[in-house]
Fold this protein.
Amino acid sequence: MENKLTYSDFKIGQTLTCIKLGAGYYGGDSDNERLILGERCVIEDLDWHFPNRVCIKLKSPFYFHSEFVPIECFCDISDLRDKKLKQLGI
């Protein structure tokens, strides 16, 4: 069974890094404009209505608002470090 992260695994103010673009969460190709790979985002809100999403402030040149984005688009800083160490074979 795969362990999927939910909103309860995060806290407001936590920093996440974007590792995946949009994932078609609005069904269009314009999702790639909303997120920037490698950009660090701070969680602004969590809501049980959106169990698999976190609210972040978009920093794209075209979007200046906060939005609930799928968790799969982000990685915690500690997870990112562990992935890099694994790639190096450490």
The mean pLDDT is 79.
